[in-house]
Amino acid sequence: MPAPEELDLIQVRPDERFDEAWLHAHLRGRLPGTEAPMRVMQFAGGKANLTYRLRFGADQEYVLRRPPLGPYAPSAHDMGREYRVLSVLHQAFALAPRAYYFCDDEAVLGAPFFIMERRHGLVVRGEMPERFSANRDAPRRMSEALVDALAAFHAVDYAALGLSDLGRPAGFVKRQVQGWNRRWQAAKLEGDTDVETIYRWLTDNLPESAYNSLVHNDYKLDNTMYSTDDPSRMVAVFDWDMCTLGDPLSDVGMLLTYWTQPDDPPLVKTIGTMPEAGYGFFSRDEILQRYAVQSGRDLANMRFYHVLGIFRLLVILQQIYLRYVRGFTQDKRFAQLGLAVEGLIQWAIEIMRGERG
Fold it and tell me: What confidence tens digit (pLDDT) does each residue in 285-294 have?
């Protein structure tokens, strides 16, 4: 039986293959162990960037990351940015895998890519891992670790890592609202006045950002990895291609968006990539309470950041759905994303009106 961390690996999807011999020739000698024969597998999770395991010989492993197929917003799938962050962040934040090599020569894979270290553990998505399912306390311990890691990440001294020019904290939230609206305008298939209503509400309720830090920009349960032996110990945080400097509360709003709890609308529960609501994970209120204690930050404006998180997610899903509709990917998981976008629109409006927390 495969090790738990191997269960997420699949044969490379037909439309997401590349010339493995050409890649091997390019990498040979650039990293330790790459002279040995290379075997490629694909990580099944994720809906945007493509991630592959490269195994050289019997035991030398690396992970390759590249953007999705078809047209995409470079700022949302910036391999150079992700490489830059991960090449230094591990020094101050041990959950960040170390990046070793970046290639912007598109003749190799057809897109920029980078190589990073392989971490081993469990990524939790729609079902509780079997080895944790009998532990009634595991969901709460995982919730605590997830929030604590986010607070620790937001406390990183980015200037000491040479990342002071990674972004512009001043005006970050306003640029987020405007930027995601531009992406919506480019990705929508037809006019939708409800999305315009969300955009206007965000514009009218912009908070004064009191904090700045490194921001992950896609922090959620299935972008993290836990120890196979201890649900309270995280071993990695993934997907750093949108990392920047800005308001850390936007990360908290994004985490609330991806989270599910028992009283969520049915469509919201299906969007969340975590074990079924009610299993024993934190509620959203408990997430906020623990983050406030761990970070010392004032969370009075979290309704705004939650709606902003939903707005971002509905645009991200619309961008992926558009690639599917236009035939740039044949991944059948994306066929129902249009309904998911509709569910997110309704959820955002309910939160704006104070009908849901």
Answer: 999 999 999 9
Task: Please choose, from the candidates 10, 57, 6, 4, the residue with its C-alpha nearest in 3D space to the C-alpha of residue 333.
Answer: 10
Looking at 3.40.50.300, 3.40.50.2300, 3.30.70.100, 3.90.1200.10, the CATH number of the domain 130-352 comes to 3.90.1200.10
Q: Say which DSSP state 249 is in.
A: H
Alpha helices in 207-353 (DSSP H): 249-258, 266-271, 284-295, 302-325, 337-352
> And the tokens for 18?
């590349």
Both tokens assigned to 236: 């990695």
Report the candidate in 143, 154, 147, 145 with the shortest Cα–Cα distance to residue 92.
154
Which pLDDT belongs to residue 72? Answer: 54
What separation in angstroms does the CA of 7 have from each of 1, 41, 53, 314?
Answer: 9, 11, 13, 29
The whole-angstrom separation of Cα 299 and Cα 211 is 11
Q: Answer yes or no: are the C-beta atoms of 85 and 237 closer than 8 Å.
A: no
Q: Structure pTM? A: 0.90
Strands (E), 104-218: 113-116, 213-215
Query: Domain-by-domain residue ranges, the chain?
Result: 4-116, 130-352
- Quote the CA–CA distance of 138 and 264 in Å, as a whole number: 22
